[in-house]
Write a structure and sequence with these properties.
Helix content is 34%, strand content 22%.
């Protein structure tokens, strides 16, 4: 793509929420590059600030407004110096709150939802002409077809969105409203994008979707491909070393995808499979469309296909109507499955979702106490899992510098953070690391000499 703008403008993007937002932030930077915008890592003095927001829980949304408050003086200072700072709110809060953001924060110039990013150049042009923009359209062009092909700075571990939106309508969740109906990209476009990422240096690709295992994209032969079939095709890409996918729904784990875990050498032995609750009554009230037995069955079949597969999950405690017995069912499920790492949250009533109108609320103090008990058990399991890795030699994708001099940090196949003393030349490679210690949130180890690199990123 041609560079058009002679002057470099500073673009600061702050990202909250899921990996799909991280992917989107990268794509927004890509589409703004031909307009002269270059990413910077602080908002001071920026020509444009984009807050890419998350609406999933109340706390996440509150953070946006407190950040906006901090931007106001920076915008005023820029104006006092004769410049202009465009302030934009993107992502799921933008989609959900729309106009209301402009009312509450009059210094915001642009509010636009996740399905409009391909229209950014036009929107920026209008905003620079002092028009205030609110764009929360769902229909119209498909953003993936309109975004630029190039990915800049996607790094050695890259995200690739293959599916967006959700049709499941769990009663607590805003995603079907903020991201819209489920949509799968075409297989050809995904494979081409994956190849470009690998050519640009990616060794690991995580394919993304709000409900990624419901993927059903049109294949090159015109038939509909499921996720298992897509992963098989991605596994063939030369130079790609690792494949992951997230986030999955237990009800969409089909036989082919389960079999892929046993067959594909690049597919990593770690799966995030949110269950939310161990109580059938609560799962029903959540409209999860699966039971605890289905979850056990899926885990068992996956473990049969790939015995070393490690699991993580999401849990919500204190959902309306949750009794002590229901909560004990969740604790029991955790004990029976055994997780490597998990996220757990107190139920947050989200405006516009069915659960926000449910009556039999769980008292805050009870929810807090249950969350502490659940997190205690999950932490025990996480520490036990990490300690079990001591003595193993694991391939670790080293992609960050540590805080200590000479230290690199990377991810194990099981998604653990591994800290290691290593020469800089091992940065952006997969190195064999002998694990020496396991902590709650990380591992440490040392480089196994003689057998270090797979392929340096170009
Ligand atoms: N698509 C994924 C998760 C999307 S949201 C799935 O199907 O599970 C990420 C996590 O946030 C959810 O798994 C859930 O645990 C949590 N979450 C979503 N809505 C919530 C709410 N209203 N209150 C508390 N946690 C919530
Ligand atoms: Fe939300 Fe449920 Fe869809 Fe996940 S499956 S995104 S929790 S509605
Ligand atoms: Fe948050 Fe939207 Fe992702 S609500 S979790 S940023 S889909």
């Amino acid at each position: 793509m041609q560079e058009r703008a002679p002057n470099t403008k500073k673009l600061y993007i702050k990202t909250w929420g899921c990996q799909m937002n991280s992917y989107d932030s990268g794509r927004m930077a890509d589409i703004l590059r031909p307009l002269g915008y270059r990413a910077v890592d602080a908002p001071e003095g920026a020509d444009m600030v984009i807050l890419n927001t998350c609406h999933i829980r109340e706390k996440a949304t509150d953070k946006v407004f407190s950040d906006l408050g901090r931007l106001r003086p920076l915008k005023e200072q820029k104006e006092a110096e004769g410049g202009k700072m465009l302030v934009a709110v993107a992502g799921c809060v933008a989609q959900a709150e729309g106009d209301f953001i402009l009312e509450r924060a009059p210094y915001v110039d642009m509010v636009f939802g996740p399905q409009t990013y391909h229209e950014l150049p036009e929107m920026v042009l209008k905003a620079n002409g002092n028009e205030r923009i609110v764009n929360t359209d769902f229909d119209g062009d498909n953003k993936f077809d309109k975004l630029p092909e190039e990915h800049l700075n996607s790094g050695v571990s890259a995200f690739l969105s293959i599916q967006e939106g959700c049709d499941k309508f769990c009663t607590y969740c805003v995603v079907p409203y903020t991201r819209g109906a489920e949509y799968s990209r075409d297989v050809r476009a995904i494979i081409d994008e994956a190849r470009r990422l690998v050519d640009a240096g990616a060794l690991e690709i995580t394919v993304l979707g709000q409900n990624v295992n419901a993927f059903h994209g049109v294949g090159p032969d015109g038939s509909i491909w499921g996720l298992g079939q897509l992963l098989r095709a991605l596994n063939e890409i030369d130079g790609l070393e690792r494949l992951r996918y997230t986030t999955s729904h237990p009800g969409d784990m089909d036989d082919d995808l389960i079999a892929a875990h046993g067959e594909l050498d690049k597919l990593q032995p770690f799966l995030h499979l949110p269950v939310q609750s161990g109580s059938n009554k609560i799962l029903k009230a959540m409209n999860r469309k699966h039971t605890r037995d289905l979850y056990f069955d899926v885990i068992e079949r996956l473990r049969k296909a790939r015995p070393d597969l490690a699991f993580s999950s999401d849990f919500i405690v204190g959902f309306p109507g949750e009794t002590e017995e229901d909560f004990e069912d969740t604790m029991d499920l955790v004990r029976r499955v055994g997780f490597a790492s998990c996220y757990s949250f107190k139920f947050s009533a989200r405006p516009g979702t069915p659960a926000a109108n449910m009556q039999n609320l769980v008292h805050e103090s009870i929810a807090t106490e249950r969350l502490a008990r659940l997190q205690g058990l999950l932490n025990e399991q996480q520490i036990a899992f990490n300690k079990k890795c001591v003595g193993l030699t694991l391939p670790v994708l080293l992609d960050r510098k540590g805080k200590k001099p000479g230290q690199l940090v990377g991810r194990s196949p099981f998604n653990q953070s591994v800290f290691v003393e290593a020469p800089d030349r091992l940065m952006n490679t997969i190195a064999q690391i002998q694990i020496s210690e396991g902590f709650e949130n990380s591992l440490t180890g040392s480089v196994v000499t003689g057998e270090t690199e797979s392929r340096a990123a170009s």
